[in-house]
Amino acid sequence: MTWKRRLLVFASSLLLAVAPGAARAESPVRTVRLYAIECGHMDVLDMGVFADTGEYDGKSGPLAVTCYLIRHPMGTLLWDTGLSDKLAENKDGGGVGPFKLSVKTPLIDQLKTIGVTPADVTYLAFSHFHFDHTGNANAFAASTWIVNKAELAWAESTPTPFGVDPSAWSAVKTATTRLIDGDHDVFGDGSVRILRAPGHTPGHAVLAVKLKKSGVVILSGDLYHLEANRKFKRMPVFNTERADTLASMDRVERIVKNTKARFIVQHDVKDVAALPKLPAYLE
Questions:
Q1: Are residues 1 and 43 in the same domain?
Q2: Which domain holds residue 3?
Q3: Is the separation of the CB atoms in 129 and 151 below 8 Å?
Q4: Do 91 and 227 sit in the same domain of this protein?
Q5: Residue 151 has what DSSP assignment?
Q6: Does 215 or 97 have the greater pLDDT score?
Q7: Helix spans in the chain (H)
Q8: What does the DSSP assignment read for 182-244?
Q9: Are residues 8 and 106 in the same domain?
Q10: Which residues pair with 147 in a beta bridge?
Q11: CB-hemisphere CA count at 13 Å for 93?
């Protein structure tokens, strides 16, 4: 350990001694932590697009938009970047088709409340490249981007696929990028794993996080948008491949069962409401 590193560790310990309570996020951690971050909100005028079998036709409903920060002794991972922080500049938000979009507090500002800046994020990874998961990606150009090859090829195809905004993640061209094909162990110890789950998009994935006290937590990406979709295996009309989606559902549910995992549907308002609010976290 260099003298600069020792000085940093010493200074961090003094800070904690002076200000007891929840540790600031930039201080070293000994165990994995999972922070849930509100990264926007959607009011959907017609939820019919979220079931290709007609159950939601003509019905309106809300969808949560969430990002997740995982702190590990070896670094930090940000999973998804939500809707663009620019929406917070307009109290009425914005709209895309049947979606009314809003952001209450920018992602960058929320990270600051736990002592994290974009420069502190070691790795950036996405469940997939739809606009509500990549809105602030370019703010993390200094991070190492973990990107599925099939997802990137699809998102860069012509014409641009439905729901994709290439300008939001244009930094992929210059950022340090780690291209992956399948499952990926982020820190090499099995505690934070990106699990391939194609179907919603070609390179879609879920994230499995193993926590010391809370056990395994699996973040859905858009494998499901609602708990009812999970229960009845409903899927959006805009999924790229129905058969792949069903196979991914089967695989992930087996992993949930075998690991006794807590499964979080990232867009389900009730699932998200049950998670700790910043600066609290699961560990």
A1: no
A2: 1-28
A3: yes
A4: yes
A5: H
A6: 215
A7: 3-18, 107-113, 131-134, 149-155, 227-232, 242-259, 269-273
A8: S-EESSSSSSEEEEE-TTSSTT-EEEEEEETTTEEEEE-TTS-SSHHHHHHT---TT-S-HHH
A9: no
A10: 179
A11: 18
